[in-house]
Amino acid sequence: MPRSIRNILSALTLLFTSLAQAQTAEALIRQGNRYYNKQDYEQSLTNYQKALKKKPGNPDANFNQGDALYRKNEYDKAVTAYDDVLQSKANADTRQSAYYNKGVAMIRQKKIDESIDAWKNALRLNPADSAARENLVKALLEKKKQEQQEQQNKKNQPDKKKDDKKQKQDQNQSENKPKPQQSKLSKQQVEQYLKSLEQREKDVQDKMNENKSHSLSQPEKDW
Predict the structure, then answer these.
(1) What is the CB neighbour count within 10 angstroms for residue 59?
(2) 93-126 residue pLDDT tens
(3) Which of 113, 57, 101 is nearest to 77 (CA)?
(4) Is the Cβ–Cβ distance between 101 and 67 less than 8 Å?
(5) What CA–CA distance (Å, rounded) separates 87 from 125?
(6) Residue 30 and residue 133: Cα distance in Å, rounded?
(7) Which pTM does this prediction carry?
(8) Cα–Cα distance, 58 to 15 (Å, whole number)
(9) What is the DSSP secondary-structure string of 21-70?
């Protein structure tokens, strides 16, 4: 091969390599998007992260990374990615979408206040976003419902305290109730007392028998 041709090929190789390096971040994002559309979120994340290494703070890479993390149910990390978009020099449309998606990730974590703030910010950037408005209304209604439930629980709390107090008072009264006085008589005294009762009972029985025998000999009284 002539030397001149070899030099030309070498120069072209360097040119293509330089162009590839200059477009690497965008190419990686596009590659990540292809994986994302195939629902291969792990591979899409790998490409977005590589793009961010080439171009730190790239709003498109951060935004798409947030979407992929959301699809993997990693909502905390997704919110962080959307926050990175909001701290970058992203355009208004991208920022508005980042606020919207952040609100969705927050509501998945049952963080109602944070989702409300996110959707409010989305609507400030685009008042015509009907999806953001609907989500905001639902979140506000849910928050109101929770507040009403909390108020009801607070109302029921004094009644529970009353019941607990009454139960404690009843228990104290039961504990403080005087016990029956125990006998102070000795065993010998008790035996003598029992013998005395038996003798009395015998005397009474004898007397009743005597009266019964006497009455039988008397005529019935005519009233």
Answers:
(1) 19
(2) 999 999 999 999 999 999 999 999 999 999 999 9
(3) 101
(4) yes
(5) 15
(6) 31
(7) 0.62
(8) 25
(9) HHTHHHHHHHHHHHHHHTT-HHHHHHHHHHHHHHSTT-HHHHHHHHHHHH
